Amino acid sequence: MAVYVVRRLLIVLPTLLGVLLVVFLMVRLAPGDPAQLLAGEFATPETLAAIRERFGLDEPLPTQLGLYLVNLVQGDLGQSTRTRSPVTHELATYFPNTVVLTLGAMAVALLIGIPAGIIAAIRPGTVLDLLAMLGALIGVSMPVFWFGLMAILIFSVELGWFPVAGTGSLAHLVLPSLTLGTGTAAILARMTRSAMLEVLSQDYIRTARAKGLAGQVVVFKHALRNAMIPVVTIAGLQFGGLLEGAVITETVFAWPGIGQLLVGSILARDYPVVQGAVLLIALVFILINLVVDLLYGAFDPRIRYD
């Protein structure tokens, strides 16, 4: 396993380099001049030239890329052109809030999606199965921003149960987590149902039942464990997707996470922050995939990392 982990970690470097190159080119080829945004509409050419020189925007693209890579190797992600603070400070300020929101959304998805999928699988064709899959279809179909606005209207404005936006307490986390996690819960419910139905039709499950094992033992000890591999795969991918999808949810609920930071930085052409945020999200996504691969062995001892 150690060799497998090292080999996977070695792949991280070229992957991040590719992500960096794509983002570097995209943000610089996008319309708009960051110097003009910083200096204002009526700035003089001298002021614009001074700003471009200060942030290295007057250099050719290959030179800018080379300087950025040299600084990156030294742990320097640059300085925000908006706030003048280091990018590492910006990410350290906003990213923990996104992690909290993502963990909350993942908890919602797991607590709703997996039990719903199990219930639908052990009662196929019944009203419970129909209701679970109908709920999953609705959850997949609803746009995140619409669901968030409806949640605010009902639970915050009309009922007054939860705060409208912002952070500060556990109550602030409920609606954003529910909004962000509902779509993932629907996907997990459908995947869990499909995997459970396939496993429950296997010969060893019929043998276990024929031996007189209790239904709960058959479902949770034998069937669920073997059905969890595709579910873990989807859950891991969705966890990484929640980090990216948090952009919309954070905007709707004014949640001060990396999504809001990224949107504001793109609008302001804050190249260093955009590059740093995307690199961080890509790194987390890659590491999550590695953890998911390692979890396969916990659910299926037959898997070996040779």
Description:
By secondary structure, the protein is mostly helical. It folds into two domains: 2-73, no CATH class; 91-299, MetI-like fold (Orthogonal Bundle). 78% of the residues lie in helices and 0% in strands. The protein has twelve helices and no strands. α5 runs antiparallel to α6 and α5 (87-122) packs antiparallel against α10. The longest helix has 38 residues, at 215-252. The protein is globular, with a radius of gyration of 24 Å. The protein starts with a helix and ends in a 7-residue tail after the last helix.
Number of domains: 2
Unreliable residue stretches: none
Largest sheet: none
Please identify, by name, the CATH architecture of the largest domain.
Answer: Orthogonal Bundle
Gross morphology? globular
Fill in the CATH topology of the largest domain.
MetI-like fold
Q: Name the CATH class of the largest domain.
A: Mainly Alpha
The whole-angstrom Rg is: 24 Å
| Distance between the first and last residues' Cα | 7 Å
Helix/strand-derived category reads mainly alpha
What fraction of residues sit in β-strands? Answer: under 5%
